[in-house]
């Protein structure tokens, strides 16, 4: 039997004209034209099991090659497109979990907001027959904030936290002055407001 080696990566396969092949073995393959880079090997009589092993190895390599190509095609065609998937994070939160988060959020907001200093407010208004009145509210401070009732709900755009029955304690200084012809009238004082 004459064997031909196709290349270093493929097994040696039998060449047509094998006298010792069994009729049950696979049909002989055609001999490839020889080129300077290919080598031919001769061997003595081979058993039927050797011929079968060589033929099975050649078929196995061919099947493996076709299988790898088919899997690669399936992976590239079955992969979802980037436009079809939108990155997101999803979670399930119970109503009691929302209420707990709301209570933490409201108490944290109260601690962060108090005490809060508000910038001074100054206005000037021109009143006919009276003249120009200048009003100033300065030193405005939010001292305390109490939230009696608050609710949380899931809206269309996200989670909505609403505070009701809230009260605040504010202190400030106020003053006003206006001049009519030659007379200037002014007054000032302190205020403590509970809202």
Describe this structure in words.
- Residues 1-48 are annotated as: Disordered.
- It comes from Eleusine coracana subsp. coracana.
- InterPro entries: Bactericidal_perm-incr_a/b_dom (IPR017943), BPI/LBP_pln (IPR045897), Lipid-bd_serum_glycop_N (IPR017942).
- This protein has 2 domains: 2-78, no CATH class; 95-194, Bactericidal permeability-increasing protein, domain 1.
- It has helices at residues 48-78, 95-113, and strands spanning 2-5, 12-14, 39-42, 116-118, 121-127, 131-154, 159-180, 183-194.
- With 195 residues, it is an alpha+beta fold.
- It contains 2 helices and 8 strands.
List the helices and strands and how they pair.
Blueprint: E1 2-5, E2 12-14, E3 39-42, H1 48-78, H2 95-113, E4 116-118, E5 121-127, E6 131-154, E7 159-180, E8 183-194
Features:
Bactericidal permeability-increasing protein, domain 1, Bactericidal_perm-incr_a/b_dom, 195 residues, BPI/LBP_pln, alpha+beta, 2 domains, 3-stranded antiparallel beta sheet
Average pLDDT number: 70
Low-confidence stretches: 18-23, 32-47
Q: Percent range for helical residues? A: 25-40%
CATH architecture of the largest domain: Super Roll
Sketch the major β-sheet.
5 strands, antiparallel
Overall number of strands: 8
Write a concise synopsis of the structure shown.
This protein is of the alpha+beta class.
């Amino acid at each position: 039997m004459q064997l031909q080696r196709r290349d270093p990566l493929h097994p040696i396969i039998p060449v047509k004209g094998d006298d010792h092949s069994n009729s049950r073995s696979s049909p002989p393959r055609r001999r490839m034209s020889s080129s300077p880079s290919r080598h031919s090997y001769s061997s003595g009589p081979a058993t039927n099991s050797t011929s079968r092993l060589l033929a099975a190895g050649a078929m196995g390599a061919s099947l493996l090659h076709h299988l790898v190509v088919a899997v690669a095609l399936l992976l590239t065609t079955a992969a979802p497109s980037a436009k079809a998937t939108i990155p997101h994070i999803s979670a399930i939160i119970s109503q009691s979990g929302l209420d707990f988060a709301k209570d933490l959020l409201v108490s944290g907001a109260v601690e962060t907001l108090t005490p809060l200093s508000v910038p001074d407010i100054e206005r000037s208004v021109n009143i006919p027959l009276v003249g120009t009145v200048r009003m100033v509210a300065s030193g405005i401070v939010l001292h305390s904030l109490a939230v009696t009732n608050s609710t949380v709900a899931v809206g269309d755009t996200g989670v909505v936290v609403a505070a009701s029955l809230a009260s605040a304690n504010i202190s400030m200084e106020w003053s006003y002055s206006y001049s009519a012809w030659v007379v200037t009238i002014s007054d000032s004082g302190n205020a403590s407001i509970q809202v």
